[in-house]
Structures are given as C-alpha cells and as structure tokens.
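REVIEWER CHECKLIST
Item 1: Sequence provided? yes
Item 2: Single chain? yes
Item 3: Sequence as submitted:
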Amino acid sequence: MIKLALFTVLFLVLHYEADAKNWALLVAGSNGWYNYRHQADVCHAYQILHKHGIPEENIVVMMYDDLADNSENPTKGIIINKPNGSDVYHGVPKDYTKDDVTPENFLKILKGDKEGMRGIGSGKVIESGPDDYVFVNFADHGAPGLVAFPLGVLKVGQLQNAINYMHKNKKYKKMVFYVEACESGSMFDQTLAHNIKVFATTAANARESSYACYWDSERQTYLGDVYSIKWMEDSDKEDLTTETLQQQFEIVKKETTTSHVMEYGDMTLKNDPVGLYQGDKKANVTSFKQSKPITDAVPSPDVPLMILYKKLELAKTKAEYMTIKRKIIEEEDVRSLIRVTVKHIAAKLVAEEPKRLEVLSSPAEIRNRGCYEKAVDHFNKHCFNLNKYEYALRHIFVLSNLCDHGIPVDVLTKTAEHVCKTLKVA
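Item 4: Structure as written out by the authors:
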C-alpha cells in the first residue's frame, strides 16, 4: 500500500514536470544605429534560449529591426554582439517590429492576451499556464520608475499590475526578469513582492546608469551592454542544467564593475538551475571563446556623444571632420538645453534656493507616482521626446522630486509646458 502511494506521488510529480513549458519574452526597446547594442543583446539572448531547447514558438521577440539592412551596416544581414563575434541575427523571429514595439503590446503579450494582439505582428503571446516557467529579458534606456520603448514608456506601475495579473490568474509557476537599463532597479525596488515566485535581476540600482561596451570601429557603434554581455557570455559557456540563478547572479555581479547589479523578489528561486528559465537542453559549449576583459565601458547616456568623438578620431577628410564636429556641437547644445529647461522649471516652482537645489540634485524616491507619471507624459509630449533624447531621461528625476515636494500636477505640467515653449524646445 505504501509502495503504491509512493509510486502514485512519483508519477504525479513526473507528470507535472512533463507538462511544464518554457516561455520567453525578449524585448529591445530602442531603435537607431547608435542604439545597436540593445537589439544585438536581444538577438544574442534568443540564440542562447533556442540552442538550449526552448522552441521558437515559445519565444516572443520584440525589436525595431532596423539594423541588419541599415545603410551603416558594413555586413548586411548580420548583427554581432562582440568584436569579431558570430552573427546573432540569423533565425531570430520577427514577431513584433517597427511601430508594433510598444509598452501596450508588451503588456498584452506578457499577459497572454491573444485576442488583443490579433492582426498585429505574428500575434504570438506568452500562453503560459500554472506549470510553466517564464523568462523576460528587456534591454533599452531607463529612468526612475520607467523603461523606454521606440514609442512610449513602460511605467513601474504598469509592469507590477501585469505581474500581479499573471500571479492571480496562474499564468506561471515561476517567472524571472533580466533587465538592462539605466536605473533599472527602480522597476522592482520596493514594488516586487517576495512571495509570488518572481525573481528579477537588473543592470543597475534605482539611481545609476547602466553601461555600454565593445566599441567597434568598423561599425562605429557599441555592440553590447556590460550587464547583458556578462550574463549571456556566462550562459554561453556554462552547463545551465547545473548552474543556479544564484551562481550566475554572483558571477555577473562580480564582473559588472561599472554599475551595481541588483536582485529583487522571491529569493527562493535563486537555487533553481538557470536552465529552468533559459532552456535545460545541454548545449555544446566547446566552441565558446572567452572575450577579452571589457575596458571601453561608457555610461549609456553618454553613448551618442562618445560615438561622435570616436568618429571624429576616425575622420579621413577635413570635410568629414567638420561635419562630425558640427554634430558634436549640436549634441552638446541639446544636452545643455535639457539641463537649462529642467532648472527653469524648478526655479519657477520652488522659490527657496536650498530646497530648489535639493530638488535638482536628490535622487528620485517616487513617493507620488501618479503625479510623476503624468508629469513625465507631459514632459515627453511638450518638451523632449524621451525616446529621441535619451539624455533627457537622466533629468526627469527632478519631476518626481517636484511632485514629492508638494507641487500639484496640474501646476507642474502647465509650468513645464510654458517653460519649454518659452525656450523654444523642439
């Protein structure tokens, strides 16, 4: 009788695990050649998951897809993620590209809203259930409480609502997020519950930049991001059936010396093998070539300017040199205008200089999320397009501080709009 009971339990466990599926949502939230690294990261992530046994139909990819055939690409149809690296673009499904890469679509896909995605892109969504493991990888720009898309921004409240929906509706057994963005820790810090079987790691804490790396003089852009490179190069060479999330996190944390790699959520998941989320098929790692140490990391906000300076060094004619020099001046002028604009907004709303300086220098706490998110939307519409002017993302923390200072949102938005109109902000 006891043997029969044990056999029944064993059968149920094995049957339960046999029914489990892997699902993955991979997102590059930027476009443009200067942002090459984000789509390269996501393409590389796809190759890792696919070679470790996750079928294409269970992987959803969102990327603008403007690199492979870009006029600046010297190797048409090929994208690489490290110097002299292999092509990571081949075979990557084009589920959602161009204007389909939006926060709204991301949320529908994550929640499994197949009807909501009907007629858009491939229509694929994360059709996970209570036995399944879900892996989400996002690479792009960020700011306090948000990450950017080519069109619009995804806010922390929206992401948390989607996670809560998935938990309530038993859309996963366990779920893991790997997020590459500036201030990416703010998407989970003090918001991700510890008891809903969701674990997240981020490239940076809630107050700092993430870093680009692997400058390529032939392509004249950066090929990767430090955090993303570190976790993917680890996954490329390790046996994911035995390496745990904890072990991978510690490796990435140690080797990412440019920012503070963080962890959030349910820490019991850290004992799980990485393969539960990135695929448990033992892949061939004999061909893996260890990359040289990263020595060219640059803060993400400085990438556009740094690329121009690198191009200036490579200029072959005086005319080319002067053209790049003008672009550098234009970029620096825009950065200056962003700083002046934010200072003017604060000056009109906070009379006392000590408090105004505090507003302009203190990291965002986002205690009044509703006010802050409305202010961000207004700033994005009437001042600087946050997807076009990534440097502006580094300064919208001031909007949060003004909200927390007690400035009513309608007063804040009207003042910002007036200042931006006066300064003739594009």
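Item 5: Key structural point noted by reviewer: The domain at 315-422 is CATH 1.10.132.130 (Topoisomerase I; Chain A, domain 4).
Item 6: Recommendation: ____
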